[in-house]
Amino acid sequence: MGPLLALASALLYGIADVAGGLLSRRANFAAVALAGQLGGLLLTLAAVPLVSGSAPTVPDLAWGALSGVGTGLGMVFLYRGLSRGAMSVVVPVSAVNGLALPVLAGVVLMGDRPSALAWLGVAAAVPALWLVSLNGEHSGEHSGEHGGERGDGPASRAATADAMIAGVGIGVQYLALAQAGAESGLWPVVAGRCTAALAILPLLRVSNERPPEPLPVRLVPWAALTGGLAALALVCYMLAARLQLVAVAVVLSSLYPAVPVLLGVTVLRERLCRAQAAGLAAVAAAIVLLAAG
């Protein structure tokens, strides 16, 4: 059950990232992130009675709050990178950073001991995240210009820096939430949505490219829905981390960059380049190895 929950988390996160990235190109990215966290808070509060748990302890809420700080920072910088159009750079860099920190901490500090098969799965997941995010142009299958304004130059370097910061926030989110006790139910996620919103507020003016205008009313429900999907992804991850090693749950949950590719192939009838096909094969191998390990 643990691997299935972690994969459900990846699916929900992938959809939320695509939707959030598109919204961030039409409105201030920090405003989109804030509306998303508030939407996630409402959804999580509604779901609290559905998950059994006793009254949370102060440490449980503290871990959830720390996770939310990571979420807030991660989402703001992720959406800023996505608003610059460098999705093929931002998503894999943030994903790799986001899984590296919890995996290392789980092994070094928490005593996680993944099996040999699980380690092979981790090794397969890292290049898979890069490969699935490539397109034919970036992988060298087409001639001509390489990347344009969104692939080279200062914008690309800035987007990479955003992705690095976002990855640290995502890693803190995963690592801290996994420390909350199973008896706490969904309250750590609720605490995290509150602190995530508070962490985003000072960052509403972090952008020089786009003024901090209010989020258009017509986009508020969509931003809130995006945040709700991300909150559900965190719930699935938290439950998965309670059923298996944190390192395994993090890696499976971090496979969300494959989701936009799969949506493009199945819904939009897009064609895969060789690099993406190899990446999806590596994703499948990682899933099998981690589930078997």
TrEMBL record:
Residues 2-133, 163-290 form the EamA domain. Belongs to the EamA transporter family. This is DMT family transporter. It comes from the Bacteria. Keywords: Membrane, Transmembrane, Transmembrane helix. The chain crosses the membrane at residues 26-48, 60-79, 85-109, 116-133, 219-240, 246-268, 275-292. SUPFAM superfamilies: Multidrug resistance efflux transporter EmrE. Gene3D superfamilies: 1.10.3730.20.
